[in-house]
Design brief:
heterotrimer, A alpha+beta, B mainly alpha, C mainly beta, B: mainly alpha, 10 helices, globular, C: mainly beta, about 0% helix, SoxY (chain A), Ig-like SoxY domain-containing protein (chain A), Sulphur_oxidation_SoxY (chain A), SoxY_sf (chain A), transferase (chain B)
């Protein structure tokens, strides 16, 4: 039989009952950005992220992302990442020839208070990024299991 | 927040200005939400509950059992305006108080000769949402006298009885602590005028029965089964607390 | 075919920017929730949403579990001439749900 110290036993117990780690590391966020756009330089840019300052439920947070197209030419893709979610990538929207502008509204899940990051790919292949912080009262992944 | 403060202030003013015996006027759970959630409920397209209302509309026209549909007897769903305000109500044929969901199932069994839907099934909550939605804006008005009086009393007793490992009665929070916060969330009066609701926590539609079971679980009590007689009688009491509040189905809640 | 809701204005003038809205009934199980019996519900999501107008793409969205249940999208297209606005959702099992509406351009 393996002898366990009190500390190891307690850590083991904690690991049994605590939920799995529910936030990505900064390197995982960077990796998922690379998985979408490849390893390219990213500059700060005028992407507008409309999010409530305080979200009462992380299960559904209204989000509108838009990127002014006049100054930058067409926007090919907009990708949204939530830095503290267990899986940081939220969605990738690509805009076809019939889109009036690079703008999309949806509802996203947020695990906790965090920054939401958007990366836009312009027609010439340049990447720009912007971020917006949101305070979340009750996270999407850490709430009581949805029994009943 | 401002609206909540106003609502609570209005309630307090009403208490101060009235006879001591008078109860706090009912305030819809809507007033305890942040503006983004209120906006989602108010938007008839983006409100996810409308998906269930629409599904209910399809089921309404769908023949079942002996080939009849809801529409054959009742006509268009719009004809049900006002019906939802009265449930749960006394049923002469059943000899007890029944919920709207049970009334739908009774129709299915007797008039359509079809198998009843499960109480927590998507079909039943959709039909119930459809019928309640027709009464949106009308004041809730359940009867608590006559044959329903004893059910009302049992519901009230349940509401005021402490239970579960946390030893809390519904009234400990939803009467005594309205407007206080439970961690980050404001405590509402627990009004059910918006049910069936689209609940963000569930990411799904649920009836009053589902909410009662959830609340039981939250105070670590044995959950009342959805559709059990005690749950229906508790629903009657909950609805009576909100008599006069406008129906909001499908409401969106946290 | 899952239950969907779409909103496309019935008419528009040529050159108008019109708002399109679309929603599908789907739980978007994110792999972090449990059944009443305590078993983990595996990831089950819609992975792709596409909207086309006059057979050309308006928007395509790749969805991840970070999108809320009953995914909702709203975006804008420029009306050119009368034609169909078509919507398609594909879930992770490859099941496709479609919807369409006619946009009349005057």
């Amino acid at each position: 039989m393996i002898a366990l110290s009190r500390r190891e036993t307690l850590l083991g117990l904690a690991a049994t009952f605590l939920p799995l780690p529910v936030s990505a590391t900064p390197s995982e966020v960077a990796e998922s950005i690379v998985s979408v756009f490849g390893d390219r330089p990213i500059a700060e840019g005028p992407i507008k992220l409309e999010l409530p300052a305080l979200a009462e439920t992380g299960n559904s947070v209204p989000l509108t992302v838009s990127c002014e197209t006049q100054a930058f030419g067409r926007v090919r893709r907009l990708a949204v990442f939530a830095e503290m979610n267990p899986r940081p990538m939220v969605c990738v929207a690509s805009f076809g020839p019939m889109a009036a502008d690079a703008r999309i509204t949806t509802n996203i899940r947020l695990a906790s208070t965090q920054d939401v990051v958007c990366v836009a790919e312009l027609e010439d292949g340049k990447l720009i990024t912007s971020r917006q912080s949101v305070r979340v009262v009750v996270g999407a992944c850490t709430t009581l299991p949805g029994r009943y | 927040m401002k609206r909540l403060a106003l609502a609570v202030a209005a309630s307090l003013a009403a208490i101060a200005g009235s006879a001591p015996a008078q109860e706090t006027p009912p305030v819809s759970g809507y007033q305890f939400l942040l503006p983004e959630t209120q906006a989602l409920q108010d938007d008839d397209f983006a409100n996810p509950g409308m998906l269930w209302v629409e599904l209910g509309g399809k089921l309404w026209d769908e023949p079942a059992g002996n080939g009849t549909s809801c529409q054959n007897c009742h006509g268009a769903p719009e004809a049900m305006r006002g019906v939802g305000t009265r449930y749960p109500q006394w049923s002469q044929t059943e000899g007890r108080v029944i919920s709207l969901e049970q009334q739908v199932n009774q129709c299915r069994a007797e008039r359509q000769q079809a198998d009843p839907f499960g109480y927590s099934s998507q079909e039943l909550v959709s039909l119930s949402a459809l019928v309640m939605h027709q009464s949106r804006g009308l004041p809730m008005s359940v009867a608590t006298d006559g044959p329903a009086a004893s059910a009302y009393r049992r519901g009230k007793a349940y509401y005021e009885t402490r239970r579960g490992q946390l030893n809390l009665a519904c009234s400990n929070c939803h009467v005594d602590q309205v407007g206080s916060r439970l961690r980050g969330e404001p405590i509402s009066q627990g009004q059910v005028n918006g049910f069936p609701i689209y609940r963000q926590l569930w990411q799904d539609m649920g009836s009053v029965g589902r909410m009662i079971a959830w609340c039981n679980d939250a105070v670590r009590a044995e959950p009342l089964a959805e559709g059990s007689q005690m749950a229906v009688e508790l629903e009657l009491y909950l609805r009576s607390l909100g008599n006069g509040l406008a129906i909001e189905t499908p409401a969106v809640r946290r | 075919m899952r239950n969907t809701r779409i909103r496309v204005p019935e008419t528009a003038a040529a050159g108008d920017i019109v708002e399109i809205r679309a929603m599908i009934m789907h739980p978007m199980d994110n792999g972090f929730t449990y059944t009443t019996q305590g078993t983990l519900i595996p990831v089950d999501i819609v992975t792709d949403f596409t909207c086309t107008y006059l057979d050309e793409e308006v928007v395509h969205v790749r969805l991840e579990p970070g999108i809320s249940a009953n995914p909702y999208f709203s975006f804008r297209l420029r009306a050119l001439r009368t034609g169909k606005v078509e919507f398609a959702w594909v879930d992770q099992h490859g099941e496709k749900t479609v919807a369409e509406a006619l946009l009349t351009v005057k």
